[in-house]
Amino acid sequence: MNYAAIARRPELVPSTKFKVYTEKHLDQISQLDSLPSQLRHDIRVVAKILPFRVNQYVLDTLIDWDDAETDPMFLLTFPQKDMLEPAAFNRMAKLIKSGADTKTIHALATQIRQDLNPHPAGQMELNVPMLDDEPLGGMQHKYHETVLFFPSQGQVCHSYCTFCFRWAQFVGDKSIRFSSAESDGLYTYLKRHKEVSDLLLTGGDPMVMKTHHLKYYIEPLLDRSLHHVQTLRIGSKALTYWPHRFVTDEDADELLRLLERLVRAGKHVAFMAHFNHWRELESYMTRRAIQRIRNTGAEIRCQGPLLDKINNDPLVWSRLWREQVRLGMIPYYMFVERDTGARRYFEVPLARALEVYQTAYQSVSGLARTVRGPSMSASPGKVQVQGITEINNEKVFLLRFLQGRNEAWTQQPFFAEFDENATWLDHLKPAFGADRFFFEEEYLQMSGERLAG
Q: The pTM is what?
């Protein structure tokens, strides 16, 4: 597939209407017919457990079907056998082969999902805010200045990423899903919490919503009583998976006018774009969408996790960051793959993540060095791996908080014993013989108080 040609010539972009395929429609994806039968079987098994959704634009424009089995965009959207523990995969494969009914298959899928840590970092237990002693569904308030809101109409995506740490939003189990159809509680809460400067609409993907739904959630920000909420962030993968949302959709112009209106009213609108590979920036439609968003006065910040088999290469990241800057976007975060879902397939040791980040960072100009990483979005906060060094003959990781549940932790450095196999914060031990990291006692107290109250 000639991606460079697609980028230069818009007439090569398939002019498809939005058409989506889920696990029930795998037989309708003609491109799969060319793949080995065993791979097709594996996809079907895993798709019974992990959410699967892809659209025609992704199939026709982003995936290199001549080399699908190693293609990063294929691995990003189609489930693979090794995303599950062998025992879990074999149990589901055996059940399907036996001809079990849908109810029985669903029961096993639910059981396996519970072992995949559906809500990491204390999202259910620790992040849900309270209003008049009642929990506010569809919201999270982990960090002092930022509130997350999950609009119910936005709890789906144009396509699903196989690594997604919010996969639990998409499996149909309301007990593990964040969402709210009401904005009244959100804005009442914001009016009472003057410390909040940023509202993040997240999901799923808020850009699946029609503009009139977005207006319902966004326009209240223009009220003078919410002057302290200076920034609206919108988390989205639509620039990759359906850039038509900003170009040719019937309400695309109305959406852009909404963003422009917020900017003119003095709000900072930050489009938090998720990119995992430079290939996602190659299509003409994506580049046109980027241009149109930037023309509203909104800025685009780019983030994504380091993923084995997809972007575990400093050359991929340096090219991605340089291209983002060239297109007028801001490299923002390189994340560590979270401890949830298909983690076992994508996770990279922290030492390797640091090597990839530092090597890529060293090869780009200062305009791309806005990016921070590798960062773990762990329960105590966002923890950056800053380096590996030796102190008093002990090899250690140097870490710091970029954000903390207690804002006083922010920018605080701390040390952990070097572990070449560690992939997450809870794998690390304090250095220099310490019993605990400096934040642990307070964090445990905070957690206990919240769970008890």
A: 0.92
